[in-house]
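[SOLVED] Predicted holo structure with magnesium ion

Edit: marking solved, answer below. Original request kept for reference. I posted the sequence and ligand SMILES and asked for the 3D complex as structure tokens.
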Amino acid sequence: MQIHRIRGNDMNDALRRAKRAHGDGAVVIGHERTSDGGITLAVTVDRTRREAPAEEGPAKPARTPKPAEVVRHPSATAVKPAKTSGERTGVARELADRMAAAGASAAWIDRCLGAIDDESEEHPIDQVGRKIGESFGVARMPRTAGLTRVLALVGPTGCGKTTGLIKIGARLVRGGHPLRFASLDSRRVGAVEQLEAYAAALRVEARALTDDTPLDAETLGTRGCEVVLLDTTGRPEADCARLVELRRNLEASGGEAELATFLVLPATLERAALQSAISRFGDLRLAGCVITKLDETPEPAHVLEYVADLGLPIAFLSDGRDLGRSLHRATPEAFADLFLRGKLS
Ligand SMILES: Nc1nc2c(ncn2[C@@H]2O[C@H](COP(=O)(O)OP(=O)(O)O)[C@@H](O)[C@H]2O)c(=O)[nH]1
Ligand SMILES: [Mg+2]
């Protein structure tokens, strides 16, 4: 029996996500409160009851689901009965083939192609592109006067946290935003030096925070910065504990700085590795995710479907090692490109 961990902000939210991800066959076998007040469900799937995940809305056990959702999932709106792959002709068939080549599942292809209105004057490719784009949440970090955002990247070793932070930093420096780097990865040989070298090139300060440094606004140096970019070690036990401590201290010190944690997921990860990353870092209150290494797979739809089904908004997309050009803000158009062309344009 395979057990899936589904995280939600509260019980209703978690149940709705479970139904979305696993359809009517989702059976909750346990739940626990997370350190930040959310809920993690342990869910298994009753194959005899499993249907295509939720076409008709919220999970049955959820009494009054909140209407506001970060992610507008394809299942959130009613769709026409999808034509089966054998019935598709012309443009619909070509679009289905393109989505399949990008790694999209049959359920997603059916839902997205179900959006084609033959009577519409809009070209089917635009209709399907819009439907794909609407299926994702985009994580936004609006600027607030007097508030420093501490943006932490977490994720498995080698997923692209440090290079991702440097790319975000380079972008912010170009936009004239005052910032600083900080790193919890002070034990690994060369890790701090790597960050410091890039920070120096950007003329930005970088702070190494050792394991015994208390984490708060002062040690991070939030004063005068719009953003502090915080690098982590890739060790879930250590990073989760430190970020919970940091959030608590920032909240206790009057709210001049706020932590936003993003999970970094390479598009190359297999499903089991994605599940492992989510279950090891998913107890943190995640503001969203960053998808990296989109240039290393022709099938980016795998990881994208996975995060959409979890209800995790996406902040950035990365498709290369180049520090100046390979980081892109997530947009509906970018998601459509990834599903219909297998890459960003
Ligand atoms: N091809 C490709 N490589 C990437 C991308 N992002 C990061 N990398 C590479 O992945 C490796 C690990 O990145 P790093 O930031 O050190 O990972 P960390 O351990 O999570 O900090 C480095 O060689 C990066 O250049 C990407 O979008 N595409
Ligand atoms: Mg690193």
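OP edit: The CA atoms of residues 140 and 315 lie 7 Å apart. Thanks to everyone who chimed in.
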